[in-house]
Amino acid sequence: MNDSIKLFQGKDALVHSAFIDWCDKHPKGWVANLVKPGSAKLHRAVCRHLRFVSNSNAKMTKVAKYCSADRKELLKALDELGVQINDCGTCI
Ligand SMILES: [Zn+2]
Questions:
Q1: Which of 38, 45, 77, 81 satisfies CB 3.0 to 4.6 Å to 29 for a cystine?
Q2: For the whole model, what pTM was predicted?
Q3: pLDDT tier at 22 (50, 70, 90 boundaries)?
Q4: What are the tens digits of pLDDT across the range 50-61?
Q5: In angstroms, rounded to a whole number, what is the distance separating the alpha carbons of residues 47 and 37?
Q6: Buried/exposed code over 9-45 (b: 16+ C-beta within 10 A; e: otherwise)
Q7: Distance (Å) from CA 14 to ligand 1 centroid
Q8: Residues 74-86: b if buried by 16+ CB within 10 A, e if exposed
Q9: Measured distance CA(74)–CA(64) in Å, rounded
């Protein structure tokens, strides 16, 4: 996969905090949330859907998240993986 794409996946809290850290450092970045095999939802990194601060036990990265600062690169990479993308209705 392209170097500009970062994948965060795992039940470990460290993976989740690394993901949140990436979002904080890339406020203009893009996150594709793999909701089910072959289907992802595209969010802006600042989307509130990506942060459920009310539940500190939530391990959101147990669902794979593909992140990139470049929307076009991200869409291309997911297309190559055969993943369909839907835009988030809230942030896009
Ligand atoms: Zn969103």
A1: 45
A2: 0.89
A3: very high
A4: 876 555 555 567
A5: 22
A6: eeeeeebbeebbebbeebeebbbbbbeeeeebbbbbb
A7: 22
A8: bbebbeeeebeee
A9: 14
